């Protein structure tokens, strides 16, 4: 790279970082762009296949791409069994700290054993290849064990984030037609107990397909166990059936691995489907190159396993790489704002991957908290979830990374499964930019007609090449898959984001252009918040928008029209906030609820959120020709 010519605020990587890196940058960018299929095939060969694929990429039925066609593998086998054949058998796969100070460390051997035992439990309950299993827990090792156990026997897991609540869980159980729910009694958060089992009980009253509920005892605070349906995980794991060995299901590369629900433009959250083969190769390769994982590293992705970040980069990616992954149960500031820094020092963490909202949140407490700790083990830092403001980037770089750790600002999505726009250890960085697409990927920014825009012009962010970890479809809704992602611009995958590219070819993601709000990096649809509001007897109509917020990135602001007979009051507003929290989850609680007499709508009756947003920000609402009144 011609270093001197980059414009703006640029941070060059140190010689040590570049020298240590697995990724010999220029070489792999070149290899991947010369022959994309060969690049991925070469990476796939580092993993175990029961039978080698015959075709790396099959694009004969676009946009239903297939990768590693004819290949037979199993991602859980690659995460565990493969390492147990080597010295890694004794390496720590996962170090865990509970918010209350509980500790656990599981070697690869132990992880495999627990996974096999639990896989046998699932089998004994009749779970078979292709069955859906929902998992609803806090950040505890059993979450990873449950995921891996499903993968081992070919069941499709659907993890529901532990911060979601009754209706969100119910919807996901129902849509996935799950046979089994694996839940924890509760989770520790900020010194309090989140009563997950209680929430699940309520969701189960509305869900018909679940036959068995397996309960992991985390808090021991006492829960209701329904006879014939609910069973304790630890009791089942002590039965003879929970044998230490469990044969692995040989999966087709294209067989489903998991569903993960995410919010889209309209209506209900959609189930994104990922597969064993391509997803495995994509997460393995991107994590290895971008975070430059080495054998001796201790790596910490501070996201939640309930989101794609956790699936790809707490569980699968690190285990495929034989890495040591750290998992922390609780809040970053509990009991004091030094909790994270204390754990980095205590465990000697080398790589920290988190979200801008967490960085901004911790930054507010000042430099003294991190400065009390020795953070010199850190070598690489990362961020994901939303654009990072340069101020937070500089703080992270200086105060946490001591100006020696490059920051990997990774842009990707639930749908992409793996990093898409991301630096590599050798990439010169610009605060706020994810830099460039991962080797071999062609991404672009286009105008309304699908033509590339000029440098520094804003447009739609699109992807023009297939990639192995790409979603395969929306579960049970292939039409929606085609419409949502591949119809706006033929031959291009629509990300839903707007972006610009500077004169150096660096991408700058601006934000969502659809009805998705990113709150603290979490993705929520306006439709979900609105439908939670109108499910309250007092509400006739509701509209939700996102407005900028210093820590959360965006905060939810809502407008409601009351049903006749109801009068607005502070008490009612608080009740509505709690109601949204109860139905969707605490993250969805609106910042403000304003009671109004009418909402701006198009003649066809669609709420014009853009107008509400412009008004709230004091901007010009723009073209109002479609406004009804
Ligand atoms: C949306 C996808 C949390 C894991 C990945 C998120 C936004 C994600 C970045 C980034 C700017 C980002 C985009 C994207 N986003 N990473 N580095 N810079 N924006 O998965 O929940 O499916 O959300 O997150 O808007 O479309 P997700």
What does the main sheet amount to? 8 strands, mixed
Chain-averaged pLDDT: 95
Q: Strand order of the main beta sheet, please?
A: 12-11-8-6-7-14-15-23
* Ligand catalogue: 5'-O-[(S)-butoxy(hydroxy)phosphoryl]adenosine
Morphology: globular
Topology overview:
Layout: H1 15-20, H2 25-34, H3 36-44, E1 55-58, E2 66-69, E3 72-73, H4 75-84, E4 92-97, E5 103-107, H5 108-124, E6 132-136, H6 141-153, E7 156-159, H7 166-176, E8 180-184, E9 187-189, E10 192-194, H8 196-206, E11 212-216, E12 230-232, H9 233-236, E13 251-252, E14 256-262, E15 270-275, H10 277-290, E16 298-301, H11 308-320, E17 324-328, H12 339-347, E18 351-354, H13 356-363, H14 368-371, E19 380-383, H15 390-400, E20 407-409, E21 443-446, E22 459-463, E23 473-474, H16 478-486, E24 493-501, E25 507-512, E26 516-519, E27 522-525, H17 526-534, E28 539-549, E29 553-562, H18 570-583, E30 592-595, H19 609-617
Helix pairs in contact: 2-3, 4-5, 4-6, 4-11, 5-6, 7-8, 10-11, 13-15
The chain binds 5'-O-[(S)-butoxy(hydroxy)phosphoryl]adenosine (WT7).
5'-O-[(S)-butoxy(hydroxy)phosphoryl]adenosine (WT7) is lined by residues 262, 307-309, 384-387, 409-414, 434, 495-497, 509, 512, 518, 521, 523.
Could you describe the 3D structure shown?
- By secondary structure, the chain is α/β, with parallel strands linked by helices.
- Helix content is 30%, strand content 23%.
- The protein has 19 helices and 30 strands.
- It has an eight-stranded mixed beta sheet with strand order 12-11-8-6-7-14-15-23, with helices on both faces.
- Helix 2 (25-34) crosses helix 3, helix 5 packs across helix 6 (141-153) and helix 10 packs across helix 11 (308-320).
- The radius of gyration is 24 Å and the shape is globular.
- The chain starts with 14 loop residues before the first helix and ends in a 12-residue tail after the last helix.
- The model has no long low-confidence stretch (mean pLDDT 95).
- The site of 5'-O-[(S)-butoxy(hydroxy)phosphoryl]adenosine has 23 residues, from helix 11, strand 24 and strand 25.
